[in-house]
Amino acid sequence: DAGVTQSPTHLIKTRGQQVTLRCSPKSGHDTVSWYQQALGQGPQFIFQYYEEEERQRGNFPDRFSGHQFPNYSSELNVNALLLGDSALYLCASSLRTFRGNYGYTFGSGTRLTVV
Amino acid sequence: SQQGEEDPQALSIQEGENATMNCSYKTSINNLQWYRQNSGRGLVHLILIRSNEREKHSGRLRVTLDTSKKSSSLLITASRAADTASYFCATDAYTSGTYKYIFGTGTRLKVLA
């Protein structure tokens, strides 16, 4: 039973470029949440997708956008990259009907470095 | 913004000792969870405690919750070098028909062999 899969593992981009990160949720899960974790900090909530729609959003600019596909996989897109976007990006999946009572399953993350 | 604040920020103990870390949060919750993160990789779910529970055990882990003080503690007994990691508490927030989790700032635990 595969857990949450994220790709790529590492990525180096230049300021101003655009990046797409991918996530496949755990089998049976239908909700995907994305987090940004700067070095030495806790994960910060970016947004959450369910039924191919953005359901909740954290305090992130519109440069951060996402998508969820019919197979529940998801993408995180960041435009006009800034040095401050360098972080570990974590994808977490869950099942909506669990009503938050069983926690998240996290992927191993994508380490994005902006130079 | 961070919902929870862990205390201490960093903790260094000898193998075999107990480690206690605390979490304070700001708003009412449905449940609170603790996660572990090794070397900046993905987070691993450790334990969940519901708002109507006061204490919960899982192996060497013991979690307490005091909703009146909006605080929780995680106790790791008989620590091992493999317990070296960052530990985060997370509280739920229900909006628009779905739940999301807000994480604290974390406690970095180092267990010395």
Question: What would a concise description of this structure say?
Answer:
By secondary structure, chain A is mainly β.
Mean pLDDT of chain B: 91
Name of the CATH architecture of chain A: Sandwich
Percent helix of chain B, as a range, is: under 10%
Average pLDDT rating of chain A: 93
What is the H-and-E element order of chain B? EEEEEEEEEEE
Main beta sheet of chain B: strand number and arrangement?
6 strands, mixed
- CATH class category name of chain B: Mainly Beta
**Series of secondary-structure elements of chain A, N-terminal to C-terminal:** EEEEEEEEEEE
Explain this structure.
- The complex is a heterodimer of chains A (115) and B (113).
- Chain A is 0% helix and 50% strand.
- Chain A contains no helices and eleven strands.
- In chain A, strand 7 (64-68) and strand 8 form a beta hairpin.
- The model of chain A has no long low-confidence stretch (mean pLDDT 93).
- Chain B has a single domain (5-112), classed as Immunoglobulins (Immunoglobulin-like).
- Chain B is 0% helix and 60% strand.
- Chain B has strands spanning 5-7, 10-14, 19-24, 31-37, 43-50, 55-58, 61-66, 71-76, 85-95, 98-103, 107-112.
- In chain B, the strands form two sheets. In chain B, strands 2, 4, 5, 9, 10 and 11 form a six-stranded mixed beta sheet that branches. Chain B has a five-stranded antiparallel beta sheet with strand order 1-3-8-7-6, with no helix packed on it.
- Classes of the chains: A mainly beta (115), B mainly beta (113).
- The A-B interface holds A 4, 31, 33, 35, 37, 39, 41-45, 48, 50, 55-56, 59, 88, 90, 92, 94, 96, 99-109, 111 and B 1-2, 4, 30-31, 33, 35, 40-45, 48, 50, 88, 90, 92, 94-106.
